Known about the structure:
28% of the residues lie in helices and 27% in strands. It is built from 5 helices and 14 strands.
Amino acid sequence: MRLLITAGPTREHIDPVRFISNRSTGKMGFALAERAAARGHTVTLIAGPVALATPAAVRRLDVVSAAEMLDAVRAELPAADALIMCAAVADWRPRSIHPVKLKKREMSATLELEPNPDILLTVKPAKEGRLFVGFAAETGDPLAEARRKLESKGLDLMVANDVSQPGAGFATDTNRVTLLAPGAPAERLPLMSKRDVADRILDRLQTLAETEKKRD
Ligand code: PMT
C-alpha cells in the first residue's frame, strides 16, 4: 500500500521565537513509518517539528503549523491508499503572527486565538476508497471520546490512547492503546513498544484493505 502518515506536534507561532504546541515527540508516528516501510509499503511521512532521524526508505516532508500540515496532506492524499493521522495537531492558533519578536512591554496578558482547520474533516470529501486511521490521546473516559471521534470524523480505525496511564502516550518508547473500528469489538492491547503497537495497527490496516478489496 501507499501510506501517508503524519507525526509529531504542530507549532503555532506567536512571533518568530514564541509558539503554542504540545508534548508530541513524533515517536509513535515515526515507529509507524519505520515498520510500514520495513513491511514493504511505500511511505510518505509528514512530520511536525521533531528531533528524530528519518526511517530508512521513508520519504519525509517537514512542516511546522497545522495549516502547512493540511496543505501537505491535501497535496499527497491523491497518491495514497491510506492516511494515518498520528500527529497531535494544535487545535488553536494565534489570530495573527507578528513578523518580528514582540518586546515584553508590547505584549498583552491575553492571546487572541482562532481555531485551526480539522485536517481529517477537511480531506474527508476526498476519501473515496481510501482508509483513514485516526489517533485520540485522552484522559478520563478515553474509549467513549475516541469512539465519538471515530464516528464524527468518519474513520475506518481509531487508536485510543489513555495518556494518563504510565508508559503510554506522549514521549514514551512504549504505548498502551485500544483499537476501535465501526461495528467491531474494541481490541485492547497491553503495554508494548511503539514499534509493536505500529505493527498491530498495520496488521489491522492490512485486514481492512483486504476486506475492502473483496467488497469491490
Ligand atoms: O509523538 P509521541 O510523543 O510518540 O506521542 C504520540 C501521540 C500521543 C501524539 C499519538 O499517539 C496520538 O495520540 N496522537 C493524536 C493526538 C490527539 O489527541 O489527537 P486529537 O484527539 O486532537 O485528534 C483526533 C484525530 O484528529 C487525530 O488523528 C488527529 O491527528 C486528527 N486531527 C486533530 C486536530 C486537527 N485540527 N486535525 C486533525 O486531523
